[in-house]
Amino acid sequence: MKAGEEHSQTLKCLSLAAIMALLALSLRAAPPSEDALLKIAGDAKAGVVERTRALADLRAVATDRAIPTLASLLNDRAWSFSARSVLEVMPGVAAERTLLATMESASDATLRTGLINSLGNRRSAAAVPACAKTLSSPDPALVSAALNALGNIATAEAAHALSVYEAPATLNREWADALVRVAVSLPPPNRDRSIELLRIVLAKGPPPQVTAATMALARHSAQPAAAVVAALTAEDRAMNVAALALIRSGELGPELTAALGPARPSLPLDLQVQVLSVLRDRGDRAAAPIARAALTASAPAVRAAAAQLLSVVGEPADAPALVRMMIGAEEPAPSARLALARIPGEETTSLLLDSFLGGGEVRAAALEVLVSRGHRPLLKELLHAEIYADEAFGALAADALLSLGSGDDLGAVLDLHHDVPASRRPLLETAVRRLAAKHSSPDEAAELIVAAAKKLPVSEATQLFLILAGIG
Questions:
Q1: Whole-angstrom Cα distance, residue 252 to residue 249?
Q2: Using CA atoms, how far apart are residues 113 and 458, in angstroms rounded to an integer?
Q3: CA 378 – CA 85 distance, rounded (Å)
Q4: How many CB atoms lie within 10 A of CB 249?
Q5: CA 320, 324, 328, 329 torsion-angle sign
Q6: What is the DSSP letter of 332?
Q7: Is the pTM of this model over 0.85?
């Protein structure tokens, strides 16, 4: 065979193989018909895998013609779940009636529980009477399934069944959860009924559901801000938590923020702190008046929380009150310093600088805040030797030099190092070392240190020469 003929034959073989592969692929991709799937699903001799796959595939194609086969499997423990999972998603009343009839006649509690779950998943209004009747069952699993189904169905009839049911302690959570779901699912014209249901949960439900009911009640209320404040001032901790969650969400806007101001002083101290903290986390500028009022509270924790809120929402006009609070190591002083460090404006900076220059115990606090604000003009004041007469304050001033200074300030700091008493020079040596390391030219930094060392007696210049040796 010639080379050309051999090549042509090879191409024909490849083309035939490609066509066969495409045909096989199309045959595999073609979905089985409903009849084929029903034949496999109803065949007791078929393999478990094949029957399971057939029932799974039926979910996409089943019609009312599939109901007899599926109904025959609902009372079979091995196949009930797969069969009812098909009926759950089938449109039309026939599938619903099949599930309901089987549920009412089933004697096996496990199968009946599953059927109730399927009716609940279908949101079958027709199943409400049967579910309500099941609530009197001695079987907790059956009752739990009925409660959950009623919560899913969420009609007015389901609401009635749940509201008159006296849940035992073991099922209180499931009952309350279902009632909350019904309350929030009822259409707007039923708002009064929704509120009534939520109040039942508030009176009888466990904490998680009380929290959910409180949040839902506020959203359904004609005066949501007042409802949140009422929950916040309640003695029920779960209601307090729900109120805080609503405040944090910001969904009720400035109306709620405004309502919190008058309510805040009457709250327990821990709740006052939490409210202020939540407002801070939200960055709610409408909360600034609340923070200002809380700065006068007697409890340090409340004043600290108010200062922290002002650190986010404060204005220069808040600085004087914060300056009066900023002295000391205990709260609210650290929080006041934090706020002053963050409140913008030259007025704030000028007030702090005046406090620093005024001396006294406020000077250290003012220094800390000015450094936090990155106020470089303060360097001029820190280069006065008399500041370092007090060792404790001198250490703070030296740290400030290090924080605010740059390599360009090395010469001025070396002059200061020369001017302070020998006993205070160690305070400045860390700043000298770090500023030398920041200098843009190691050679120039070295020259400055050498020049400064020459101005001192040899015995006092040792540390400068050690710094020089480290410049490298």
A1: 8
A2: 95
A3: 75
A4: 12
A5: negative
A6: T
A7: no
